[in-house]
Design goal:
It is built from 18 helices and no strands. By secondary structure, the protein is an all-alpha fold. Among the domains are: 108 residues, no CATH class; 73 residues, Homeodomain-like (Arc Repressor Mutant, subunit A). α7 packs across α8, α11 crosses α12 and α15 crosses α16. The longest helix is centred in the middle third of the chain and has 43 residues. The N terminus and C terminus are likely disordered. The protein binds a DNA duplex through α12.
DNA sequence: CCTGATGATTCGTT
DNA sequence: AACGAATCATCAGG
């Protein structure tokens, strides 16, 4: 118990005024507004601290003891209590009961959502999965990245929790320490339980602000991790061949109006194992790039058109089919196009081409069929390159302004899954 | 490493 | 809200 006074000295700055062992300057607090004067004060204090010796400490101890044993002590103590009561009352109310910090709540919510502060393993993986879905990943092929992401996330989580624990422990230690000090001091000066309570709350507030910093930096770390691992733009992956083919089939078989409905997009997304947004992106890119340089896409267009036409022809020749030209999954994607087939088709189609289907109220399937067949025709017709074919398509799909014509397309038109009662390819037969 | 292809994003327009 | 156009950022082949 010899070092008790030393401790009291070192913690005097926390806010315990009026300690008898302190030099006069320290008890005056911030009374002097003059900066120079304050500097002078600090200088004096430092000087006095430097000159503190064991001897002077002993002296102080002795003086304290003498004070405690003074006959007037109980009376003085009571007076002090009264004064204290009044001042404390006036201090209180000014800074008390602050509402829960909205920023802290935001941070808490985010950490919970990211699975950092939630229940052990489930939250983390759920959040990762949700993030993966949001980023539009194609599931299996980037699962490795996700496991990496999860690993990093749990690392952050672990650091966060150990740090939090450390802070809490330190907070508790410091609180008990301060309470012990106050209890010790309550023998020489009046300290109400309320005051102790207030002191504790001040300490807790201080520590909670440190905690908030911890939470904030954790959030930042998670955000960086997310952007690093899940930002699809940074980690762009080309769609697989099958998906591209499915999309191209649809695009070229609906060349007159390559704007898939919401349902069609969903269908395509499901088939290609990508998101609807990615389908929209793809069609947006495709339309603009096709329009910009039709010549470049000629070959591709012919290929897909012919393939689709063959599928349609095969389907219609078999009579019973609820198949759509845009989804030739089984027949189209695997095998290569058989040119000898297209000859038959060409013959059967030519008459159709001659009719003026252009603005008519044709069913969507018919329309797409026409698109497809025109490609076949133009291909078999033997144009050289680019512009010739360009002119062939131009009146069909793209209007004078360079945009696609405003063809009325009911939902069943663009949707690849149509009802069984549709006219479909019977017309081409 | 360079270059074209390609998926995603941004911004203005309708 | 959907689209077009421009642009960015990455991939992939030479």
């Amino acid at each position: 118990m010899d070092e008790q006074p030393r401790l009291m000295h070192s913690h005097a700055g926390v806010g315990m005024a009026g300690h008898p062992g302190l030099p006069q300057h320290m008890q005056e607090g911030g009374g002097a507004t003059d900066a120079d004067g304050r500097k002078q004060d600090i200088g004096d204090i430092l000087q006095q601290i430097m000159t503190i010796t064991d001897q002077s400490l002993d002296e102080a101890q002795a003086r304290k003891h003498a004070l405690n044993c003074h006959r007037m002590k109980p009376a003085l103590f009571n007076v002090l209590c009264e004064i204290k009561e009044k001042t404390v009352l006036s201090i209180r109310g000014a800074q008390e009961e602050e509402p829960p910090d909205p920023q802290l709540m935001r941070l808490d919510n985010m950490l919970l959502a990211e699975g950092v502060s939630g229940p052990e393993k489930g939250g983390g993986s759920a959040a990762a999965a949700a993030a993966a879905a949001a980023s539009g990943g194609a599931g299996a092929d980037n699962s490795a990245e996700h496991s990496d992401y999860r690993a990093k996330l749990s690392q952050i989580r672990q650091i966060y929790h150990t740090e939090l624990e450390k802070y809490e422990q330190a907070c508790n230690e410091f609180t008990t320490h301060v309470m012990n000090l106050l209890r010790e001091q309550s023998r020489t000066r009046p300290i109400s339980p309320k005051e102790i309570e207030r002191m504790v709350s001040i300490i807790h507030r201080k520590f909670s602000s440190i905690q908030m910093q911890l939470k904030q930096s954790t959030c930042e770390a998670v955000m960086i991790l997310r952007s690093r691992f899940l930002d699809a733009r940074r980690k762009r992956r080309n769609f697989n061949k099958q998906a591209t083919e499915i999309l191209n089939e649809y695009f070229y078989s609906h060349l007159s109006n390559p704007y898939p409905s919401e349902e069609a997009k969903e269908e395509l997304a499901k088939k290609c194992a990508i998101t609807v947004a990615q389908v929209s992106n793809w069609f947006g890119n495709k339309r603009i790039r096709y329009k910009k340089n039709i010549g470049k896409f000629q070959e591709e267009a012919n290929m897909y058109a012919a393939r689709t036409a063959v599928n349609a022809a095969n389907a219609s020749s078999h009579g019973s089919q609820a198949n759509s030209p845009s989804t030739p999954n089984s027949a189209g994607s695997a095998g290569s196009f058989n040119m000898s087939n297209s000859g038959d088709l060409f013959m059967s189609v030519q008459s159709l081409n001659g009719d003026s289907y252009q603005g008519a109220q044709v069913g969507a399937n018919v329309q797409s069929q026409v698109d497809t067949l025109r490609h076949v025709i133009s291909q078999t017709g033997g144009y050289s390159e680019g512009l010739t074919a360009n002119q062939m398509y131009s009146p069909q799909g793209i209007n004078a302004n360079g945009g696609w014509q405003d063809a009325p397309t009911p939902s069943s038109v663009t949707s690849p899954t149509e009802g069984p009662g549709s006219v479909h390819s019977d017309t081409s037969n």
